Amino acid sequence: MWHSRPSAVHDLERALARVCRIAPPAASRLSRSPQQGKKPDLAITSPCIVNLHSPHLTLALLLLVVCTSACVRRDGRNSDCTWPGEAGAVALDPSQPAASRHLSADTEYAEELADRFTNVHYGPHSGYVGPPIAGRERHGCMVILFQKIAETHGVSTDQVIAAFGHNRLPVDLAEILSFALVFALLATLGIARIWSRYPPGEEQAAGLLMIALGALAFGVAAVMMGPMWSATAENIRIGTGHLGPRALRLPMERYSKLVFAAGVISFLALAWLRRPRQRRESEHPG
Asked: What is the per-residue burial (b if ≥16 Cβ within 10 Å, else e) of 235-262?
């Protein structure tokens, strides 16, 4: 499974190239100046403003592939709140890391089955009965499925419940870091435009004001786009178009204040690091 990931990243890059009308890596229009040995300039040919040669973008795509690779089980899905069984099921010891991860994956699969059951029988397209009843039925279905998981693996229902929502650290980190890398790339492009329009030493006050406003704007953008990024990755990983209450458990949804603060601080830090050389020289004359 893992050996196919580099090609998956390549396919994602080519898909992005088609959407944004940017030449993919194999046919890039980036050029290097042999006289001055400068790095190639960004080939911006559409509003997407993305350089597919950027290592940050490639790493972000790779992390997104990693977080979506831990896919939730696809076979046996149904809307009848029925546990489909598990081929080769064995008794598990929840104290063992591998067994704990297995139980966590089973509970995540059970939640998807419960969500499908609720949407079909108590959702808007089935004579909507309202959140209280639908929520109660969803919870009841999960209880039934958790009991089946416990019977399948020879553990108690409490041990199954204890595994619910755990062992998500790699997935959460991949989703957050991939978003952070894309955020940093876009912030760097915005900062470069600000410094080119308001260079330090000439329009320093205006430049600093624009940097401050840009930091606030990117902080708000992080709060708005971060949860959407995670939700999209989760939809792909789980194989659903409806996360329901699961979306509220995503870190970037739960900790919006921290996301805003991280967005502002990251923008300001990048702005400091990307200051034009002229300013640094003016700070140390002679």
From this structure: bebbebeebbebeeebbbbeeeeebbeb
pTM > 0.85: yes or no: no
3 state SS of 21: coil
User: 190 with 222: CB under 8 angstroms?
Assistant: no
> Mean pLDDT throughout 76-80?
90
Q: Tell me the two tokens of residue 257.
A: 């204040």
How many angstroms separate the CA atoms of 217 and 224, rounded?
11
What does the alpha-carbon distance between residue 250 and residue 232 come to, in Å, rounded to a whole number?
11
Q: What are phi and psi of 129, to 5 degrees?
A: -110, -5
Query: What does the radius of gyration of the chain's CA atoms come to, in whole angstroms?
Result: 24
Amino acid residing at 204:
Q
In this structure, the dihedral spanned by the alpha carbons of residues 173, 174, 178 and 179, taken in order and rounded to 10 degrees, is -50
| Distances in whole angstroms, Cα of residue 74 to Cα of each of 98, 106, 129, 140 | 20, 12, 28, 22
